[in-house]
Recover the amino acids of this structure.
């Protein structure tokens, strides 16, 4: 089987094995045992090593075990792309909060989700965006007196 | 303080207008999120926790606990009317509840779910009140080795019951342990896994990871537009919601079964309310005189699981409040809340904070009564929430997540981490990595490392200290739990339980 076709378990196993190896290498640089008892490297050394072993078991099972010969359900790339688009919009909104402020960034995020992700009419998206941002700002900033990210606007 | 005095003191605390208000707010919010599929109590409690920092801790704890047990009442409404569980713990209720609704008996099904939840939920609180104080007294004898072994056993239970793949559940837990280790080592002040970042020296807040993984991850996983499932009508008028006398007689054993099984399963770390409802349903079917009616609309099939998932709440609070060890993703957030407010959940908690403990217990009695009232005459109103489209809820959840994280320390860096953990939560769902072990690993990682290192310091590095009777028994039990998949019959039971959870 081509490596790319091996599926999520194979690749997540490799990523976790790399993480485990990095944890072990970092832990190697700290004291494992001192005169007073275990040092800062003691616990990470154990869970890092266990992580490497278990990740490799996951990889081996996907590559050589029974699972390697079973037909895997194909990932739904459309669904994944939509989720990643939503995540990118969330990241952009968070990044913009220091510039535009919470209310405007949140309104943009709401408008994007309603108009583009849910494909609802623009007037409805705009109403939800403005209404939602105003309600959030009023409730959390004025009523509950919580600090919200601020920028050029509010 | 004896139990009666404690309870009276608790009612004095819980009946103040502020506490009553928080209790009602919590159970209403809990019912709402219980009714809405896709938004669970873990995400809601995680998101609201930072917003409660300015509140009185007793009131805030009463509200958060109200969300936790209120969600279990609300979950049954969705199961019965839509055949979609509002909460994972209500999945078993779909089997007979929806069939009853299809046969025109939605009213008695909803009514029985509320009545059974009330009876078993109240039993759970009584049992919590009776069991927790003596257990706390007993656990005063525990020291670091016993605590370490207890935490290992708790994690082993969670891992065992977290997903089909034990390897993935273990890996998820190890990632949680790693995240908990990020920051400054408390024993030696060594910086660990901080990537040279000053902002990571203090570690990563548990609540941030919980909000990212549970709330943001859940939104991303549900962003695909789905056709709304068809909802069956809710009968109008309370008379049409009440089960008949014959229904009540048929459910006598189900009330006892749900109450006892739910509480016992709740005390065990890791098992949780879904497993409790599955087991009580299985018992009910096994002892029923009409097992052939199960799956076709047997009212006992609603009463037993709904009762057990509510009795589980009282059970789950026992290890949490007496040992400081949570048994599930949701209960893991509650000790985090106590720590944030400056309390230490553990053997001394009941003794040191009687107001908080007994106030919480008394509020749960009140909360169960409020929930019964809410879920009988007002169930039609809550059912209307199922008409709220997902695209309205998604920005709402993301907004509360942002406010919740930013409210805790006003840092854009933390919001960046929130986005990162949201992606991690989504990836875990897509790749079938269970999230509960990660959260439990994160909560228990720090105290577990501390307990292990203190134990080994006590013995000058000799592992023999973990072979004292209590830790040895607990560690052997944990090893046996992790060996379950090696035994075909036991593993078949485990897989059957998990499949019922995923159904």
């Amino acid at each position: 089987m081509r490596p790319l076709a091996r599926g999520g378990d194979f690749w997540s196993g490799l990523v976790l094995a790399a993480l485990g190896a990095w944890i072990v290498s970092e832990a190697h640089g700290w004291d494992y045992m001192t005169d007073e008892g275990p040092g800062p490297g003691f616990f990470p050394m154990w869970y890092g090593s266990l992580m490497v072993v278990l990740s490799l078991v996951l990889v081996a099972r996907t590559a050589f075990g029974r699972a390697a010969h079973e037909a895997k359900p194909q990932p739904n790339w459309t669904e994944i792309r939509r989720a990643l688009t939503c995540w990118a919009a969330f990241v952009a909104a968070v990044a913009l909060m220091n510039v535009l402020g919470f209310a405007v960034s949140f309104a943009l995020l709401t408008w994007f989700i309603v108009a583009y992700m849910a494909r609802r009419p623009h007037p409805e998206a705009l109403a939800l965006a403005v209404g939602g941002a105003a309600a959030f700002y009023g409730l959390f900033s004025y009523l509950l007196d919580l600090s919200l990210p601020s920028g050029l606007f509010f | 303080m004896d139990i009666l005095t404690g309870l009276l003191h608790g009612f004095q605390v819980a009946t103040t207008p502020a506490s009553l208000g928080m209790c009602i707010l919590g159970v209403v919010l809990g019912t709402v999120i219980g009714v809405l599929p896709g938004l669970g109590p873990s995400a809601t409690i995680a998101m609201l926790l930072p917003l409660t920092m300015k509140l009185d801790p007793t009131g805030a704890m009463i509200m958060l606990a109200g969300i936790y047990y209120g969600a279990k009442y609300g979950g049954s409404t969705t199961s019965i009317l839509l055949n979609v569980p509002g909460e994972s713990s209500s999945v078993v209720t779909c089997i007979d509840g929806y069939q009853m609704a299809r046969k025109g008996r939605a009213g008695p099904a909803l009514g029985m779910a509320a009545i059974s939840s009330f009876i078993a939920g109240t039993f759970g609180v009584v049992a919590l009140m009776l069991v927790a104080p003596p257990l706390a007294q007993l656990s005063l004898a525990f020291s670091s080795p016993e605590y370490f072994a207890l935490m290992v056993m708790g994690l082993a239970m969670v891992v065992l019951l977290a997903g089909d793949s034990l390897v993935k559940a273990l890996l998820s837990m190890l990632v949680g342990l790693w995240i908990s280790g990020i920051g400054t080592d408390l024993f030696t002040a060594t910086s660990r896994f901080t990537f040279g970042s000053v902002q990571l020296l203090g570690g990563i807040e548990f609540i941030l990871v919980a909000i990212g993984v549970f709330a943001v991850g859940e939104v991303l996983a549900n962003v695909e537009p789905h056709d709304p499932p068809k909802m069956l009508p809710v009968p109008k008028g309370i008379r049409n919601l009440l089960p008949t006398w014959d229904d009540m007689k048929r459910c006598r054993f189900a009330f006892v079964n749900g109450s006892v099984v739910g509480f016992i399963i709740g005390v065990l770390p890791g098992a949780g309310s879904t497993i409790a409802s599955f087991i009580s349903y299985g018992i009910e079917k096994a002892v029923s005189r009409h097992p052939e009616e199960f799956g076709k609309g047997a009212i006992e099939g609603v009463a037993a699981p709904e009762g057990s998932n509510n009795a589980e709440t009282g059970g789950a609070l026992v290890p949490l409040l007496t040992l400081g060890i949570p048994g599930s993703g949701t209960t893991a957030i509650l000790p985090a809340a106590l720590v944030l407010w400056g309390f230490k959940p553990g053997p001394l908690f009941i003794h040191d904070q009687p107001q908080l403990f007994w106030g919480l217990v008394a509020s749960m009695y009140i909360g169960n009564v409020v929930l019964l009232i809410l879920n009988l005459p007002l169930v039609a109103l809550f059912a209307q929430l199922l008409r709220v489209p997902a695209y309205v809820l998604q920005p709402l959840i993301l907004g509360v997540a942002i406010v919740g994280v930013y409210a805790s320390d006003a840092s854009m860096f933390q919001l960046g981490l929130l986005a990162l953990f949201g992606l991690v939560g989504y990836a875990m769902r897509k790749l079938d990595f269970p999230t509960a072990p990660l959260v439990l690993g994160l909560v228990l990682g720090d105290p577990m490392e501390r307990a292990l290192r203190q134990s080994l310091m006590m013995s000058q590095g000799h592992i023999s200290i973990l072979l004292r009777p209590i830790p040895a028994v607990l560690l052997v039990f944990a090893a046996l739990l992790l060996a379950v998949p090696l035994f075909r019959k036991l593993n078949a039971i485990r897989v059957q339980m998990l499949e019922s959870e995923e159904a």
